[in-house]
Amino acid sequence: MNDQNDFNLNNDNDVVVSVRIRVARNLAGFPFTGRASDSQRQEVLQMVTHAPLGAEFPDGLAWVNMIQASAQERQLLVERHLVSKHFAQSTLPRALGLGHSEQLGVMVNEEDHLRIQSILPGFRLNEAFDLARSFDQALEETIDFAFHQRWGYLTACPTNVGCGIRLGTMLHLPALRYSGEIERVKRAAKDLHLAVRGYYGEGTDAIGNFYQVSNQVTLGATEEELLQHFRDEVIPKLIDYERTARQMLLEKNRPLIEDKVYRARATLKVARLLGAEEATKLLSTLRFGISSGLLHNLSIETVEQLLLQVQPAHLAQMDPFAAEEEKGRLSRAILVRRALGDYAEGNPEI
Amino acid sequence: MVHEVVIKNGNKMELHLCAEHAAAKGYILPTVPVTQILKQFVATGKSLKAQKAAARCCEACGLTFAEFRQTGRFGCAACYDAFMPSVAAIIERAQSGAVSHRGRTPKRIEGQADRAAVRRQLIKEIEAAVAAEQYERAASLQGRLHQLGGTKNPPTEPTA
């Protein structure tokens, strides 16, 4: 295994793709988004987008008016996991605030008035937690949030009440999927009051064996207790399951795994047409190959970047012609071959 | 159909009438079987209760409990009090038995909140839990009550 991979393993990013903290808040004195009038929703938007954020956020946030954003731009935000599909498709007055190099986001007029979120690559839960909390507190200096002595921070859905905080990780669990143990893990996760969702959250598939795992209990514990339990007990257990499954697969069925990984690399290197889902699945297998020590001279970071770039809206952003499906497949294949070092201008044979 | 046996002066007389002739003779016939009537009665009783619950309404935003049941979403902050005690049961079920918030409190209300109402509500729920022999839940509620600085049965001053 090379140094790059050692570095990766030390950071748990063989299994953990990213972490996300989401905090739900509602402004006191306003009905929740679903029950508010359009003028009240506008008022909420005005209050939040104009709220001073203090010294910790000197540059403020960049605001995206979702009503004015094109379908492609909204899809791009979904692909980056910066907004929920529901938020992208809604027709209500709403906006997305972005800061800290996209590590911090706030959806205004989602199901709750505010959905603050911080997303960081790797298993950096503490940093993500601190970032989301600082922003929450900065807003609270000037905005009163709906709060109840018994139930804590109030949310439209009673399942988010209390701390209103969801701690989430995007996990790459190919070995648990290949070995068929993922269903057992999902059941165990349910018993631990965890939600296991697909690549783009609720109601989506785990394309490429990427799973979003988050806590479901938000009441009866402090924010720090929730964080500690999730960071030190829940996620390490899932990481261990996946690593053990990888080891077992390699010990018992190495040729099968090698075949999967090398075929994926070969396909990506020679394909002339690639669909988004196919590319995601093949890149996921490459990621597995790298973290299992089967592939060298390729980093997880390169694969992660490609995983984002092959998504339809990202591709269309780089190549406007790629918005058309067939041209997109062509453009996607070229992008991947280039990144994997097997594309030479003027020599399409390679 | 009506079947009647009349014994008059030691003579037995059987009467068999079809529905039409029975009605003409003044017999009052049940049009619906009694079992069905009873079922209807039970169902009406239930639906009246359900209707009453569903018609409960949050005065602040106008959301009815039926609407909440349909969407799973509250309309505003006041709904949390408007729909008690159903809210407590729903939240506790969703939050694996947790009965109250232990996390951060906004600065603006720290130390100045009126906790008396919460204490009263908790005491009521502890009593209900004990009555229902839900001792674990009662203990959990009691814990929260202690945190709020109250006890259900404050110890009396020791007598000299």
Strand order of the largest sheet of chain A: 2-3-4-5-1-8-10-9
Q: Main beta sheet of chain B: strand number and arrangement?
A: 2 strands, antiparallel
- Strand-and-helix sequence of chain B, N→C? EEHHHHHHH
Biggest interface between protein chains, with counts per chain? A-B, 38 and 38 residues
Q: Per the principal axes of the C-alpha atoms, what is the gross shape of chain A?
A: globular
Please give the count of helices of chain A. Answer: 12
Average of pLDDT of chain B: 73
What fraction of residues of chain B sit in β-strands? 5-15%
The biggest beta sheet of chain A reads:
8 strands, antiparallel
The radius of gyration computed from the alpha-carbon positions of chain B, rounded to a whole number of angstroms, is: 29 Å
Helix content of chain B: 40-55%
Which structural class do you get from the secondary structure elements of chain A?
Answer: alpha+beta
Per DSSP E runs of 2 or more residues, the count of β-strands of chain A stands at: 10
